[in-house]
Amino acid sequence: MSEIRTITFEELPKTAEQLRKMPQMSQKDPFEVAALTAAVLCRYEENAQDTTDMLNALRGSRQMSPYDLQFLRDRLTGKGYIPRSYFAGATPGNNYTPTVPYTIEVSDNLYSYTESLEGYVKLDLRSSGADNPRQVQLRQKGEQWFLWENFLMADIRPPEGKSEWQ
After folding, report:
1. 98 near 90, Cβ under 8 Å?
2. Alpha-carbon distance 85 to 83, whole Å?
3. Given a cut of 60, is residue 163 above it in pLDDT?
């Protein structure tokens, strides 16, 4: 049976310094690290460098490569609504504007923990603009969990005002 956890943020981090002060940055709970990943991506439209710095903090010693940075740029430029779509209250009809405080559901499933990938976990986050959940893969080092892969940036239904079908 899968576990679903709701993570709440009073505000979303804007800098790596703010991120490091958040209680979830103890990185002892993989569900919280997955939620932080979505929260950090919400900053991209306002400041790409802050987002990169925060993602690097979540990744630990495995910093983003030039390829990772280009992929981030390709996926989120002009599409800042994608990471917002993971938060409660965000819908295509309201330009994916989440309610405050920011809440996000993170879940595991039968395939989240596999023996072949011991020390890794893939957790699911639901986007209100997609039919299937998207994943965040984390890797454990000691008692902490670090961002390993992020599958949250795939295209979703555009906000209603931006739909090419209207």
Report:
1. yes
2. 5
3. no
